[in-house]
Amino acid sequence: MAQETDRDGGSDAIELILEDHRTVDELFDRFEAVTDTVDSAEKRELVSQIVRELSIHASIEEQVFYPAVRERLPQGDEVVHESLDEHQAVKELLAAIEDTDPADPKFDERVTMLIREVRHHVEEEERDILPALRAQLGDEAVREMGAAMLRAKETAPTHPHPSAPNEGGVLKAMGDRAMGVVDRVADEVNDQT
How far, in Å, are 12, 70, 188 from residue 135 at the CA level? Predict the structure, then answer.
């Protein structure tokens, strides 16, 4: 996912989230277009990209974005609780997909369910949360949050960790960084084999 910057060169948190959403949706479109026409290895590679993008995105939202939502929006606790529940369901589904052979009919069923769940989450976030948060934050705060999100992306996990906490401030960030290092080393080893 490319970095989105505003005219002053700072990162816009809302635009970063929207860009992540578009990237994942493009991957979903590709999966839906080729489901019956590609072999298992190609399908696995495409889904691996989806898993990576969603894992990183969930991590940065949980570390940086949702704490701001909780603090700045009316009913922020309720909004974040629902969003974290949705993230947890997606992480569990991602883990199940990673453990399923692409030749198994359950693979496509699970990915289709993932697509439906993520698109629902994105629709709510883009309709309700993003505009409300932008209205509550000034440009400087949006850029600062964007910069923090970009830093978090550099070390975010690239695979789902459904048993890890979804929130927790500094402990969440430290845990995600540690899991991110492990994931990225494993990814590199797997890419070399």
Answer: 13, 14, 41
CATH of 13-192, one of 1.10.10, 2.10.260, 3.30.870, 1.20.120: 1.20.120
Query: Taking Cα atoms as reference points, which of 157, 158, 167, 174 lies closest to residue 62?
Result: 167
pLDDT digits (tens, 9 = 90+) for 158-168: 988 888 766 66
Q: How far apart are CA 3 and CA 147, in angstroms?
A: 10
Global pTM reads 0.86
One-letter identity of residue 186: A
Residues 6 or more apart whose CB falls under 8 angstroms from that of 29 comprise none
What are the backbone angles phi and psi of residue 139, rounded to the nearest 5°? -60, -40
Structure tokens at 52: 């990576």
Query: Helix or strand or coil: residue 75?
Result: coil
* pLDDT tier, 39 (very low <50, low <70, confident <90, very high otherwise): confident
Q: Where are the domains of the chain?
A: 13-192
Beta strands in the chain (DSSP E): none
Average pLDDT of the chain to the nearest whole number: 86
Residue-wise pLDDT for 116-150, tens only, equals: 999 999 999 999 999 999 999 988 999 999 999 99
Q: What is the DSSP string of 36-48?
A: TTS-HHHHHHHHH
Q: How far apart are CA 86 and CA 83, in angstroms?
A: 5
